[in-house]
Design a protein that fits this description.
By secondary structure, the chain is α+β, with helices and mostly antiparallel strands. It has one domain (14-141). The chain contains two helices and nine strands; from the N terminus they run H-E-E-E-E-E-E-H-E-E-E. A hairpin with a 6-residue loop joins strand 3 and strand 4. The radius of gyration is 14 Å and the shape is globular.
Amino acid sequence: MSSGPPQLPSYLPADLRAFVECRADRVELNGGKAPWIPVPAVLKHTVGLFVKPSAEIQPADTPGSANVSVRWALVNLKFTASVVDGRLVLDAGDMRGGMLDDVAKGMDDWADQLNGWLAAGGYRLGAPDVAPGRIALRKERLA
Protein backbone atom coordinates (compact mmCIF):
# COMPACT_ATOMS: atom_id res chain seq x y z
CA MET A 1 0.00 0.00 0.00
CA SER A 2 1.01 3.55 -0.62
CA SER A 3 2.01 5.81 2.25
CA GLY A 4 0.98 8.92 0.37
CA PRO A 5 -0.51 10.19 -2.86
CA PRO A 6 1.51 10.02 -6.06
CA GLN A 7 3.76 12.99 -6.69
CA LEU A 8 1.68 15.87 -8.04
CA PRO A 9 3.12 18.74 -10.04
CA SER A 10 2.47 22.24 -8.71
CA TYR A 11 0.61 23.19 -11.91
CA LEU A 12 -1.95 20.36 -11.58
CA PRO A 13 -5.54 21.59 -12.01
CA ALA A 14 -7.41 21.95 -8.71
CA ASP A 15 -10.16 19.45 -9.62
CA LEU A 16 -7.64 16.68 -10.39
CA ARG A 17 -5.64 17.50 -7.25
CA ALA A 18 -8.84 17.19 -5.18
CA PHE A 19 -9.63 13.84 -6.84
CA VAL A 20 -6.16 12.38 -6.22
CA GLU A 21 -6.11 13.72 -2.65
CA CYS A 22 -9.52 12.03 -2.02
CA ARG A 23 -11.42 15.30 -1.61
CA ALA A 24 -13.57 14.72 -4.73
CA ASP A 25 -15.19 11.57 -6.12
CA ARG A 26 -15.17 12.47 -9.83
CA VAL A 27 -12.91 14.32 -12.26
CA GLU A 28 -13.17 14.97 -15.98
CA LEU A 29 -9.96 15.05 -18.03
CA ASN A 30 -10.06 16.76 -21.41
CA GLY A 31 -7.86 16.42 -24.45
CA GLY A 32 -5.89 19.29 -25.94
CA LYS A 33 -3.43 21.07 -23.68
CA ALA A 34 -3.15 18.63 -20.79
CA PRO A 35 -1.69 20.08 -17.58
CA TRP A 36 -3.21 17.06 -15.83
CA ILE A 37 -0.48 14.78 -17.24
CA PRO A 38 2.62 14.71 -15.02
CA VAL A 39 5.90 15.03 -16.90
CA PRO A 40 7.80 11.72 -16.63
CA ALA A 41 11.15 11.97 -14.84
CA VAL A 42 13.11 11.15 -18.00
CA LEU A 43 11.66 14.27 -19.68
CA LYS A 44 11.86 16.71 -16.74
CA HIS A 45 15.31 17.97 -17.72
CA THR A 46 14.67 18.03 -21.47
CA VAL A 47 11.44 18.92 -23.30
CA GLY A 48 9.49 18.75 -20.03
CA LEU A 49 11.17 21.98 -18.92
CA PHE A 50 9.59 23.93 -21.75
CA VAL A 51 6.63 22.05 -23.16
CA LYS A 52 3.52 20.93 -21.34
CA PRO A 53 1.93 17.83 -22.81
CA SER A 54 -1.04 17.69 -25.12
CA ALA A 55 -3.40 14.73 -25.33
CA GLU A 56 -5.88 13.20 -27.73
CA ILE A 57 -8.56 10.98 -26.17
CA GLN A 58 -10.84 8.63 -28.10
CA PRO A 59 -13.05 5.76 -26.95
CA ALA A 60 -11.38 2.36 -27.46
CA ASP A 61 -13.13 -0.73 -28.79
CA THR A 62 -13.60 -2.04 -25.24
CA PRO A 63 -16.28 -0.07 -23.33
CA GLY A 64 -14.80 2.03 -20.52
CA SER A 65 -11.38 2.17 -22.19
CA ALA A 66 -9.74 5.09 -23.96
CA ASN A 67 -7.07 5.36 -26.62
CA VAL A 68 -4.81 8.20 -25.48
CA SER A 69 -2.01 9.86 -27.37
CA VAL A 70 0.26 12.16 -25.35
CA ARG A 71 2.84 14.44 -26.95
CA TRP A 72 5.69 16.42 -25.42
CA ALA A 73 7.25 18.23 -28.41
CA LEU A 74 8.98 15.42 -30.33
CA VAL A 75 8.13 12.65 -27.85
CA ASN A 76 4.79 10.95 -28.53
CA LEU A 77 3.35 7.99 -26.62
CA LYS A 78 0.11 6.18 -27.43
CA PHE A 79 -1.54 3.94 -24.87
CA THR A 80 -4.84 2.49 -23.78
CA ALA A 81 -6.21 3.65 -20.42
CA SER A 82 -8.71 1.43 -18.63
CA VAL A 83 -9.87 0.47 -15.18
CA VAL A 84 -9.44 -3.21 -14.32
CA ASP A 85 -10.69 -4.48 -10.95
CA GLY A 86 -10.81 -0.89 -9.68
CA ARG A 87 -7.23 -0.09 -10.72
CA LEU A 88 -6.03 2.34 -13.39
CA VAL A 89 -4.12 0.46 -16.09
CA LEU A 90 -2.07 2.27 -18.75
CA ASP A 91 -1.00 -0.07 -21.55
CA ALA A 92 1.52 1.24 -24.07
CA GLY A 93 1.52 -2.13 -25.84
CA ASP A 94 4.33 -2.54 -28.35
CA MET A 95 5.18 1.17 -28.35
CA ARG A 96 8.47 0.71 -26.55
CA GLY A 97 12.14 1.32 -27.07
CA GLY A 98 14.67 3.88 -25.92
CA MET A 99 13.23 6.90 -24.14
CA LEU A 100 9.66 5.59 -24.58
CA ASP A 101 10.47 2.71 -22.20
CA ASP A 102 11.34 5.26 -19.51
CA VAL A 103 8.27 7.39 -20.25
CA ALA A 104 5.96 4.34 -20.11
CA LYS A 105 7.60 3.13 -16.88
CA GLY A 106 7.11 6.55 -15.29
CA MET A 107 3.43 6.48 -16.24
CA ASP A 108 3.02 2.92 -14.92
CA ASP A 109 4.71 3.85 -11.64
CA TRP A 110 2.45 6.90 -11.22
CA ALA A 111 -0.67 4.79 -11.89
CA ASP A 112 0.53 2.18 -9.35
CA GLN A 113 1.03 4.92 -6.75
CA LEU A 114 -2.43 6.32 -7.45
CA ASN A 115 -4.03 2.86 -7.17
CA GLY A 116 -2.23 2.17 -3.88
CA TRP A 117 -3.13 5.57 -2.46
CA LEU A 118 -6.82 5.19 -3.33
CA ALA A 119 -6.90 1.68 -1.83
CA ALA A 120 -5.22 2.94 1.37
CA GLY A 121 -8.04 5.50 1.64
CA GLY A 122 -10.71 2.83 1.10
CA TYR A 123 -11.41 3.65 -2.55
CA ARG A 124 -11.07 2.13 -5.99
CA LEU A 125 -11.81 3.49 -9.42
CA GLY A 126 -15.18 2.87 -11.02
CA ALA A 127 -15.70 2.36 -14.73
CA PRO A 128 -14.62 5.51 -16.58
CA ASP A 129 -16.94 7.45 -18.85
CA VAL A 130 -15.15 7.95 -22.18
CA ALA A 131 -16.23 10.18 -25.06
CA PRO A 132 -14.26 11.77 -27.90
CA GLY A 133 -11.93 14.34 -26.35
CA ARG A 134 -12.51 13.44 -22.70
CA ILE A 135 -12.44 10.79 -19.99
CA ALA A 136 -14.22 11.04 -16.64
CA LEU A 137 -12.88 9.09 -13.68
CA ARG A 138 -14.86 8.33 -10.55
CA LYS A 139 -14.07 6.70 -7.25
CA GLU A 140 -16.15 4.19 -5.34
CA ARG A 141 -15.79 2.86 -1.82
CA LEU A 142 -14.12 -0.54 -1.50
CA ALA A 143 -16.62 -3.24 -0.56
